[in-house]
## 1
Amino acid sequence: MKPFEYASPGTVDEALSLLGETFDEGAILAGGTDLLTELKDGTFSPSRLVDVKRVSGLDLIEEGADGILRIGATARIATIAEHPSVLARYGALAQAARETASPQIRNMATVGGSLCQRPRCWYYRSEHLCLRKGGANCLAVEGENRFHAILGGSPCYIVHPSDLATALVAFDASVRILGPGGERPVPILPASPDAKADPAKQFYVLPKDDPYRENTLQANEIVTGVRLPKPAPGVKSAFVKVRERGAFDFSLAAAAVAADVQGGKVAWIRCSLGAVAPAPWRAHEAEAAMLGKPITLETAAAAAEAALAPAKPMSQNRYKIHLAKVVLRRAIVAVA
């Protein structure tokens, strides 16, 4: 492991001052459940770790008078899973938090770290020079790709590993980012699937826009938290995931759905998929298929078919299409 400096600031401004202009100069340390693995593997070797656990206020979870739920970047995943406001209004987020990793990791890992974690792709995490590390191409294309992307891939086929991010998409969450120019709130994903990558309009980006990064966070910026708008009174939500083992494992496919059913028909709905694309994936096709219709096994199945119609499987991961349809269908039905 490359030697590094360690800093433990007490304020956000102090933390910002310790970051550099490149990611190799300084990195934020919170729970460390992903970052420390990268350090040990040699995947990432910053010169300084900036530990933000002492920064006051970054771990708060509070509901404002405006009804917006504010979750600080260093709030623990275990805390999110049991918080009364989350359980009352954002059930899919609580479910996703409970399904994340193991109890030990949930008690250390933070929401900011979950959103910013790096790919779990074995080519990226090993000594191989893949595209994301400056190589000529994505080694999964001709290699082992059974866990890789079926949506939004090319030229890199990683999948984003965060269950929390999948759930946050279903609630139209925004990410708060603080840098030298002040705070900038950005949607976790753009409203339109065809929107061009814009740091002012989205947090996550796809490889077609930038094959070397997963989000628009700059080296001298820090995620301070997320904001969830107040859902309508009738909105219900659900999160469903499938993993390779019945143990503490990353998702093979996951889905989060939030919907408002009025008069027996869907008046508003958000559908998102996890572990099938390089970023959390909003299933716009499923939403369009469900609007104005009742939630039945048949309509949910049709919506899942529509969502996965654009899928482009690789040589070993065609099974993910079926899994993604199953979890999305189950999540849609669950909100009914």
## 2
Amino acid sequence: MGLFGPPDVEKARRTGQIELMLKAAQYTKDSAVAEAGRKALAEHIDLLIRELDSKNIRRLRVAREALVAIGPVARDRLVFILHEGHVHRRQDAAFVLGEMKDEAAVEPLCESLKHTEPLLRLLSAQALGKIGSKKALRALRLATMDDDEPVAKAARKALARIPGGVPGTSP
């Protein structure tokens, strides 16, 4: 990357520099650079998903941002993990899906509100609030009656963010 130019996607790809690929994917001055950055990141999707387990806050942040930048390909992998993965992976997937704010994740996140693990239900409710889709209203209303109070509270808060979710409130 030049001091004042766009990120060098080919250099990032050759050297495996995920952060440089992410900078390219987030580059707003040239859509071709951004698209090249997203494609380069997509080549490392398995690594990025594994990095969600990292205890290193910086690596975790970069992995989350990179998955969001990748878009639909990452979303589809995260939805699969939400259904099939280990509970901790499911929690990571729910969180990142919320950051993506992609309506295609609403139905799988609504299903996750029925999981036995309270933290997964809580993260799913929070993700649905971030997405803000009216398609989640019924599932979130049911979740407000969850036996686990933090889950019920997260569902109420999510409903308040969705137009029509709670009478008299606005997002």
